[in-house]
Design brief:
Blueprint: H1 10-38, H2 52-95
């Protein structure tokens, strides 16, 4: 007896895709919001923090943290596309419709 299961809930796949897209947008906005706060020393709207430690933190924020968060955003968007493509293929196989 085989324990392999094949199947898909198309509505759940749509919701999963939307969740990945939503979370990507949330992380994207988080980067924007935090970058505005981190800012450069004395920039309008940024946290007032000056000195060597502040400069080091800002440099790391821009060179390490922001790129990593942007990579997360892109990965979430890529997965949303992957989920949608699989949902479409499944719908075509199950229902004969590419939608």
């Amino acid at each position: 007896m085989s324990t392999d299961l094949v199947g898909v809930n198309l509505a759940q796949m749509v919701e999963l895709q939307r969740m990945f897209e939503t979370k990507a947008a949330e992380v994207d906005q988080l980067v924007v919001d935090l970058t505005a706060l981190v800012g450069s020393g004395g920039a309008t709207g940024s946290v007032h923090w000056q000195g060597r430690l502040a400069d080091t933190f800002r440099a790391e924020w821009e060179s390490v943290f922001v790129p990593n968060l942007r990579q997360l955003v892109q990965s979430l968007r890529d997965q949303a596309i992957y989920i949608n493509e699989n949902r479409r293929r499944s719908n075509l196989v199950l229902n004969g419709v590419d939608a």
